[in-house]
Amino acid sequence: MTTPEDRDDLTTPDRASNTPEDNTQGPSPDAGQQDPNYGMDIHLQPDFVRAIVDAIHADDTDTARALVADLHVADIADLFEVLSSEERRSLARLVADALDPNFLSELEGAAFDDVVKVISPSIIADAVKQLDTDDAVYILEDLNAESQQEVLHALTREDRTALEEGLAFPEDSAGRLMQRHLVAVPEFWSIGQTIDFLRAQEDDQSPNDFYELIVVDPAYRPIGTVPLSRVLSCKRPMRIKDVMNPDPHIMHVTTDQEEVARQFAKYHLISAGVVNDYGRLVGVITVDDIVGVIEDEAQEDILALAGVSEGDVNVSIRDVSRTRFIWLFVNMGTAVLASLVIGLFDATLEAMVALAVLMPIVASMGGNAGTQTMAVAVRALATKELSPANAMRIVNKELIVALINGVGLAIVVGIVGMIWFGDILLSLVLATAMIINMVVAGLSGIMVPMILDRFGVDPAVASSVFVTTITDVVGFFAFLGLAALVLV
Amino acid sequence: MTTPEDRDDLTTPDRASNTPEDNTQGPSPDAGQQDPNYGMDIHLQPDFVRAIVDAIHADDTDTARALVADLHVADIADLFEVLSSEERRSLARLVADALDPNFLSELEGAAFDDVVKVISPSIIADAVKQLDTDDAVYILEDLNAESQQEVLHALTREDRTALEEGLAFPEDSAGRLMQRHLVAVPEFWSIGQTIDFLRAQEDDQSPNDFYELIVVDPAYRPIGTVPLSRVLSCKRPMRIKDVMNPDPHIMHVTTDQEEVARQFAKYHLISAGVVNDYGRLVGVITVDDIVGVIEDEAQEDILALAGVSEGDVNVSIRDVSRTRFIWLFVNMGTAVLASLVIGLFDATLEAMVALAVLMPIVASMGGNAGTQTMAVAVRALATKELSPANAMRIVNKELIVALINGVGLAIVVGIVGMIWFGDILLSLVLATAMIINMVVAGLSGIMVPMILDRFGVDPAVASSVFVTTITDVVGFFAFLGLAALVLV
């Protein structure tokens, strides 16, 4: 039997069972069965997916429903996402009305579009009714205008207005992320009053699970937060104002979700009140919704640096081709520019074909070094580790690093050139061009993102095309130009 | 005055003050003062940093302490991070013993190393005593062995053992992330019993703020969770087992933090029990600690793709140069390999110098296209959107996208070639090589990360060198090889 006293075991070494000594005994015989990851993500197992696909093709409603019956809504969403577009629609037709409608708020991109195409607006309306406002808004914002109206009309006037207000906030703003049902209490309440108030809430009035109370002043402006664990561990007569954390972190409805996420991460927030222009509390954002935002924002940066605007593997071939082509086309301009620089030296190249053989080394090493610095700069700007306060120091540092590595690589490439072509002068030209391009790469890797950021352009999206253009052009120009001067 | 009924306003449109209509009135006159972001991150303002630096150089303890007095611990950490290494040490000497020792757990990398070098082990020991086990372990793991021992000896035997056990778990494992103080209750308890138990906890026994109770069976295995909001809103006689969420998500002590973070994000977890090999609950991980992990892991992927192992702008020049040089050196091998391929065709190049001018276009466009596909694949593998269940579908899709974009770019580059050199055969060779290299780029962009992942190598770290090697070699070989066959 577990008694309250048992929990103190956890820090009592002689009874806790995960001491280092225990580990040396290896897992117990039944460890396999207790592996907590066992059975996780089972929907991603090819066998399970195959069984689902078979049921879809056999149009076998019962089997399909039985297979998905015990899945978590997030797993159901993942299952839809691994299927092809047609399979998704067929599966939705077979099982949608038997599912917890919450799975809709877990679906992303193309999978969401496929599923809502075939399920009835009444199922979507049911989902929207049950969900927190932020999740409901997430579903609604992805519907086309017609379905959106259909769903909104199926709601009560009150729910509809709340959602319409949510949709009126800019995309990716705190207003879209926030949950409107919340619990706010005045600071002069006692713990006892607060608990009685919470117990008296009717189910449809109280928000889903929450973790902190927001303390408001008479004008309904947030002035503090109280973690629920503190409400539970304090005696009934204590006052809210004596246990609250003052100076709450507050978001404005229009604050960008990236900034909201940055503050949650930095200050380890569990929830934050959202206020309107008048400072009045209108909603609350909880950390579980922010986790997804942080993943999305970091993902966006990764993909943007690689020239991809959409990382969802489920986007249609047409959309993927189009968005990637635009980026490739822009880069083609860069590549042609680099070729024009080479073209300036065609006489030099004709005189010495070894230059053509070696020239890509200088350009490509510059590109690599520039990309390294750029990735660090883009992330440091996003996390605000790089700011006007330390910009000079960081630029100086990158310059020194570029010089050190430039000299190092120049020595290596000089030796390679000597061994290959046995030409000291050629090797010296190669080494000098390498140093020049590495320094230019380091400088442009740090300066380009900083300048873009200053002008309000997202450095993750635009930096790499500038940096590689600079390193290509400078790389070819320095190498071939020096060769034209010295060698030919 | 705020009454409980007020909170229902939030969904009552006629009284909520953020209706779209309100927005059209523009901000209220005092909106500027109420801007919740106003004053945020003030430590990053150059003026503030300059004032701190001045105080450091003047060795002015009072001013320095006054300036940092009201900062949040996270802001203090950020302040240290924008300073130079010497300034950090001076500031730590001036203010460390007046600061909330929690700021230590907010410091990262080089800034942490600088600060702990100059503050006394007793301050560190004080911090460690006050912190959650996970934060204390975070501080200890970054200390050198000597300081670690010094700090551990300043602790009580019980605290010391708990931390030593924490340090015994692998780096980046759930065991390192978990908090050992937790509240677990048996399922047969009533809500009333639970509240009484929580109120009876002495301060030094109860964990810091927490958000869910973990329900355990008699063998202390987790069998459910109860959000505290549910404890607060239920009547005293209700039983824990009737309000708990069954089937809790459980982590094993050795589970990698990346997998822990993925499950938190996917299942919107607020906390998760951590068990040992025997399935016994030994700790709890809360979402506020996971937010940092998610940021770090995504950041790692971004930097790894760019060939950087350390994104901290505060790492020393020597360390930065060394780690980046290793990557550049590896890439130099790639570049030389590409040059060797070009070298095979020196006679061809000598016969037609236009080939040297155009050849980087084919290689660089292949590199760009390969990077696009690779970035998507690396992220999809990390989030498990790409799995054996849908691998074939995704590979086929990438192949089709590569073919479409290859043909598109081939037409563009063919026209460029015609305009520039007026040579149809040369343009056809260029266009054909482009199609070949784009298809190879698409295939290698998706296959290389998948193969690396299958063999347990982190695709984010190793993919790009393989992909660019392939696209360079194939690009030069296809273009110059075709030219040798057709043109010369």
TrEMBL record, chains A, B:
Gene3D superfamilies: CBS-domain, MgtE N-terminal domain-like, SLC41 divalent cation transporters, integral membrane domain
Record's bilayer topology term: Multi-pass membrane protein
Domain of life the protein comes from: Bacteria
Keyword Transmembrane set for record: yes
One GO MF term: magnesium ion transmembrane transporter activity
SMART domains the UniProt entry points to: MgtE_N (SM00924)
Cross-referenced InterPro entries: CBS_dom (IPR000644), CBS_dom_sf (IPR046342), Mg_transptr_MgtE_intracell_dom (IPR006668), MgtE_N_sf (IPR038076), MgtE_transporter (IPR006669), SLC41_membr_dom (IPR006667), SLC41_membr_dom_sf (IPR036739)
One annotated Gene Ontology cellular component of this protein: plasma membrane
Coiled coil segments of this chain: none
Principal location class: membrane
Domain CBS residues, every copy: 244-300
Transmembrane segments annotated in the record for this chain: 325-345, 351-378, 399-422, 428-452, 464-487
Keywords linked to the UniProt accession: CBS domain, Cell membrane, Magnesium, Membrane, Metal-binding, Transmembrane, Transmembrane helix, Transport
Biased composition range(s): Polar residues: 14-27
Cell compartment(s), UniProt: Cell membrane; Membrane
Positions of region (Disordered): 1-40
Its biological purpose: Acts as a magnesium transporter.
UniProt xrefs under NCBIfam families: mgtE
PANTHER family: MAGNESIUM TRANSPORTER MGTE
Subunit structure: Homodimer.
Family: Belongs to the SLC41A transporter family.
Entry protein name: Magnesium transporter MgtE
Species the sequence originates in: Iodidimonas gelatinilytica
